[in-house]
Amino acid sequence: MSDSADPGRSVSGGIADLRPLTRMKNQKAWYWYDWANSAYVTTIATVLFAPYIINIAERAAVDDRISLLGISVAPGSLPSYLVTFSTILSAFLLPPLGALADRTKNKKGLLAFFAWTGAAFAALIFFATGDNWQIGAIGLIGGNICLGASAVVNDAILPLISEEHDRDRVSSRGWAWGYLGGGILLAINLAVVTVLPFGLSTESAARVSMLSAAVWWAAFTFIPYLKLSDFPPVHVVPESGGIIRQSFGQLADTLKDLRNYPVALTFLVAYLFFNDGIQTVIASSSTYGSEQLGFSDDVLIITILLVQFVAFFGALTFGRLAKVYGAKRVILAGLVVWMAIVTAALFLPEEKMIPFLALGVAIGIVLGGTQALARSYFSLLIPRGKEAEYFSFYHAMDRGTSWFGTLTFGLVYQFTGSYRPAIFALIAFFALGGLLLLRVDTAKGIRDAGNDVPAVI
Description:
This protein is an all-alpha fold and 457 residues long. It has one domain (28-448): MFS general substrate transporter like domains (Growth Hormone, Chain: A, Up-down Bundle), CATH 1.20.1250.20. Helix content is 75%, strand content 1%. A hairpin with a 2-residue loop joins strand 1 and strand 2.
């Protein structure tokens, strides 16, 4: 082989390792996908879709009921049903997708396919007008499923573009970019919905804002699609048949092989508990703020934006702390803060804006950091060549059990009639997650997976 054919050699024949430069180029491109998809998460899934689709469904309701797949439901319950349906469907679809992604060289193409398909579904919501809530429902379900599929591929790329010792930094920076991008577009869209420029009605402003999130998601996905490298499959289990049959064969082999990675499984269970607690706090915070503490929509909007932008700095800070103390210790510290947050929420005074905003700052600090480090920490515990498969389990199990926290919140409220004990009850998820995480032997898990043990774990 000639020197010029080897990317690790200079033209003069001397050895020049170009891999760090390639990794840096890929990392910069990879960050943009978190920036891209967070617009959908914040503007559509978190803030605007639910009140918009409820309003549309109320027009179509007969005796305050609509028919969803033959089931009579109240319009106010429609967003919850749609999210639940898409979540359960994702839990079944993601594992075979992971096996397919591991066998695919063009992972950036697969990432872009799911992103652009998801953005197309999201754009359908723009056409949900009058009493046609069904097209909005299809848009959200398709968008959510494609978002989960793209997250599997995106997370699986993380171990391919970063070495073990640098993974926490890279993952945290990606999360930070996501919060910044999602926060910027959300601020613009909330201004549009509030100010109503160009004579827009509130409904039209919401439609335009959600369409902008779909366009944002699709447009910024071009950056990773064009600039990420290809990653040829490694350690692929030989299987007969076409790519789909091979993927299912590999998935079956991986399911049998899971028992060989007990440390990764223990962490997964820990993650399911504490992440469910995090997601439930986020999902219920608006309800808690409005129904229990008596805050107006304006205060809730300010708090949502505050959390978004504080989370940008929180994710970066957690990445730096992990470099010094190790991801596991920093995640555990974050869970202690989460327990303090739900405890403080129990005693938060009504209609006192400053304490509520202070709680939002605390949430922002630990929100992005704990999730970003969970992603990078898990990547150390999984074998090379099966990154997408294991991240598909990571996301599928998350979706399959994500109703535990909301069920707990709902049941405690039903029995007590107050949201204060309901929010405090979530402390159990952080405590159980932390106790299980304490049992994770990081060094052993990394060695079992065949990865290099970083100097700081």
